[in-house]
Amino acid sequence: MVYFNNAATSFPKPEAVIRAVDNALRLEPYNSYRENVTRKSETDICRKKISELLNFPDYKRVVLCSGSTEAINIAVNGIIKRDVHNDKHRINHVITTQSEHNSMLRPLYHLRDLGIIQMDVIACNRNGKIHMDDIQNKLDINTCLVAVNHASNVTGVIQDIDSIYNLCARREIPTLFDISQSAGCVDIDISEKPLAMYAFTGHKSLLGPSGTGGLLVGNNIDLNVWQTGGTGIKSDLETMPDILPVRYEPGTNNHHGIAGLAASVTHITEKGVQYFGNKKNKIANYLINELCHINGISTYSDTGESNPCGVVSFIVKGTHPGDVGYILFESFNIRVRTGLHCAPLIHKAMGTFPNGTVRASFSSFNTLGEVDQLIQALKFITEVN
After folding, report:
1. CB of 145 within 8 A of CB of 107?
2. pLDDT digit string (tens) for 138-159?
3. DSSP 345
4. Does residue 29 sit in helix, strand or coil?
5. Which of 271, 305, 325 is the last residue of a domain?
6. What is the pTM of this model?
7. Could you read off the pLDDT of 210-236 as tens digits, one per residue?
8. Do residues 229 and 340 both lie within one domain?
9. How many distinct structural domains can be found in the chain?
10. Range of the domain at 227
11. Where does 292-345 show beta strands of DSSP type E?
12. CA atoms within 13 A on the CB side of 1
């Protein structure tokens, strides 16, 4: 099978990741925060490796969880002040964008529907790009959070999150960046961003196991506790301990998944983030250029933009994206993703709502030869359409 659905879950995984998960499952379970053990903590090893990859200054502020969805919920629910929503002079105002994934949109919609926040959604262009001026014009005295997707999972477009951070930091407004697609293939430097949070997931460009990910919390951000439960330390307290990262990690961690994530981050660090971004960018641009020569296909990813996440969306005119995906899989053994890709608003900007697009998304394991198979299959589909 040719696998082009890496923006959802990367496949295959590096052998080092598989071995690490296997080894962790074979070892006796333990928790370094709850037991007197001399063995190094897999969780802290993983935190340190992630901190090194992203140049993040304090590994204890790397909160590990099940992925970016949980991380975003921790961030959004932790930053919002719930005691102000009945005071018309003190409003929780949040700014987000049309390019967001539902993992960002739905937590915000939920708080909006409860009357806890007001929100503005910044428009994007056909490729998913937003403009700084549009954010700046919406900032006001009540803005408590600006939440932006770093890289679109629909078009692959990259937002200038450093400029967005600087704009907001001058007003002491916290930012939340979803780096689910970009972590592992785009150079991200979080060294001097004390008012920023970054939500990441392990199973996409980081090449790790599903059910892993986390939230990096800037030094000047103090989140309210969103989830509570057992921690194994200070069990006499009725509330979560103030100690980081335990404060935001109730329950038992996914130890074998975290071991796999640590191995995947090591794999990326050894080769260098640019290796992965350059390879995926090359494959994506090759496909886009070839699709431009096929009558009946419209693309929504631009070769003029850097595409290190390797995401290409397109439609075949006259054929539902779901039908294209079905034919590619059943007749050509090529797996792509079709539909709205959990990001409905960007499709409204693209004019592809409600059917969505066909999306091919690549990993460093893909080859140009596999892309040629997709191109030939699409030529067949357009010719018989």
Report:
1. no
2. 999 999 999 999 999 999 999 9
3. H
4. coil
5. 271
6. 0.95
7. 999 999 999 999 999 989 999 888 888
8. no
9. 2
10. 15-271
11. 297-299, 311-316, 334-335, 337-339
12. 11
